[in-house]
């Protein structure tokens, strides 16, 4: 069975849990508490040198970190990752946008302002940049979603999962989604889809961290 090393409150980990739920795939979940150093053990670093979650362990024992790579791997052969060349490139376009223009601002703001004790003070010098660049990303998203129901067109894809994870929690990083009606409608659309689960969802009892 697939095993996912994940932290429950990590939005990057949630992307993979959400996709596995959409796909109805069974998996084992191993909780790695990044906030108390669970990702810095020699065992975890040997399995994933970046020391980050999520990390997927395949049934043959191979390890795959990076949420975008994991989504891409799991969605292969499903409508969530189109086979047609341009449609697939559009999905990747929005996934690269998420990693470069969204997560570093909206994701980081939520992580430090809502999950790390004292984070606001520690990251005081970055707050203005996070706010500017985060709202810039939300404007781009709202423009795209004003003319498309989903990021890569008429059907949902893994690009929607990549962008949903931190956007629906943007308020935890001090962002206000009120000025972005198309983004809010898209969040509601995804939440109404079959297979949707919240970030708190677990498929089964969470085991202690023990990288394979
Ligand atoms: N680009 C990576 C980022 C993963 C990431 O930042 N994970 C966070 C939790 S959301 C983490 O493990 N942080 C611990 C660290 O960077 O030391 C991905 O998309 O998977």
TrEMBL record:
Annotated GST C-terminal domain residues: 84-212
Transmembrane segments: none
Pfam families for this protein: GST_C_2, GST_N_3
Annotated ranges, domain GST N-terminal: 1-82
Tree of life domain: Bacteria
Alphabetized PANTHER family for the sequence: GLUTATHIONE S-TRANSFERASE-RELATED, HYPOTHETICAL GLUTATHIONE S-TRANSFERASE LIKE PROTEIN
Name the record gives this protein: Glutathione S-transferase family protein
Organism annotation: Flaviflagellibacter deserti
UniProt lineage: Bacteria, Pseudomonadati, Pseudomonadota, Alphaproteobacteria, Hyphomicrobiales
């Amino acid at each position: 069975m697939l095993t996912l090393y994940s932290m429950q409150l990590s939005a990057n980990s949630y992307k993979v849990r959400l996709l596995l739920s959409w796909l109805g795939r069974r998996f084992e979940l191993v909780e790695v508490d990044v906030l108390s150093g669970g990702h810095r053990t020699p065992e975890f670093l040997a399995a994933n040198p970046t020391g980050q979650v999520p990390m997927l362990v395949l049934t043959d024992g191979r390890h795959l970190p990076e949420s975008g790579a994991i989504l891409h791997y799991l969605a292969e052969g499903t409508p969530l990752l189109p086979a047609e060349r341009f449609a697939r490139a559009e999905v990747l376009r929005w996934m690269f946008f998420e990693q470069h223009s969204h997560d570093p601002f909206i994701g980081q703001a939520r992580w430090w302002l809502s999950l790390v004790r004292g984070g606001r003070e520690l990251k005081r010098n970055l707050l203005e940049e996070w706010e500017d660049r985060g709202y810039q990303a939300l404007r781009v998203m709202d423009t795209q979603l004003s003319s498309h129901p989903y990021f890569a067109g008429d059907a949902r894809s893994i690009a929607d999962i990549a962008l949903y994870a931190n956007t629906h929690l943007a308020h935890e990083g001090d962002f206000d989604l009120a000025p972005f009606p198309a983004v809010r409608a898209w969040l509601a659309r995804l939440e109404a889809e079959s297979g949707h689960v919240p970030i708190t969802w677990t498929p089964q009892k969470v085991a202690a961290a023990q990288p394979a």
